[in-house]
Design brief:
Chain lengths: 111, 115
């Protein structure tokens, strides 16, 4: 399957700061990407998505950037809050509608 | 919003027995359902993809006879772990999507412990 990886396994930020989580993907044919948040013992929760015909998409306090040239995704969280503490995954929707997940980044928000 | 219900949330079984996990889309019809396995502090590993009414497509290295997947209707898929062994202990998660290029909605996961 496709390889979707993350550069930073753990990220610690101060409450109120902005967070940036990165992800690299390998399948240049992938045309849809999602960022998920997973809390301990639960299933992943949708945060934001982006299609390959876009390079930026904004939601509430979150922004996803897509750089197809280098096959890179990032998730920016503004004014990070303690409730944002979780593991974040990018997922790549590639061939045959399969979703492959990256290795994940644990976000720790310090009060 | 779309809800995917997974049952049971936790199960403990004895080695050699089989366990069935159900995944239901409660308020939408899912043409495609996915089954993932997740080890502690690791990512979700795609096991198989199933489309309603057809055989599941298994990822490389996943034993189809070990992990039986049935997607009999647009709202229900089941994963049966056959002849379970302690190494099958894991967190199993299902997801469902309406069509390609749309969000996949996830269930709550099933914690399987084989003793």
């Amino acid at each position: 399957g496709e390889s979707v990886g993350l550069h930073l396994p753990t990220l610690s930020v101060q409450e109120g700061d902005n967070s940036i989580i990165n992800c690299a993907y390998s399948n240049s044919a992938s045309d849809y990407f999602i960022w998920y948040k997973q809390e301990s013992g639960k299933g992943p929760q949708f945060i934001i998505d982006i299609r390959s015909n876009m390079d930026k998409r904004q939601g509430q306090r979150v922004t996803v950037l897509l750089n197809k040239t280098v096959k890179h995704l990032s998730l920016q969280i503004a004014a990070t809050q303690p409730g944002d503490s979780a593991v974040y995954f990018c997922a790549e929707n590639g061939n045959f509608n399969k979703f492959y997940f990256g290795s994940g980044t644990k976000l720790n928000v310090k009060p | 919003g779309a809800v995917v219900s997974q049952h049971p949330s936790r199960v403990i079984c004895k080695s050699g027995t089989s366990v069935k996990i159900e995944c239901r889309s409660l308020d939408f019809q899912a043409t495609t359902m996915f089954w993932y396995r997740q080890f502690p502090k690791k990512s979700l590993m795609l096991m198989a993809t199933s489309n309603e009414g057809s055989k599941a497509t298994y990822e490389q290295g996943v034993e189809k006879d070990k992990f039986l997947i049935n997607h009999a209707s647009l709202t229900l898929s089941t994963l049966t772990v056959t002849s379970a062994h302690p190494e099958d202990s894991s967190f199993y998660i299902c997801s469902a999507s309406v069509q390609k290029g749309t969000e996949a909605f996830f269930g709550q996961g099933t914690r399987l412990t084989v003793v």
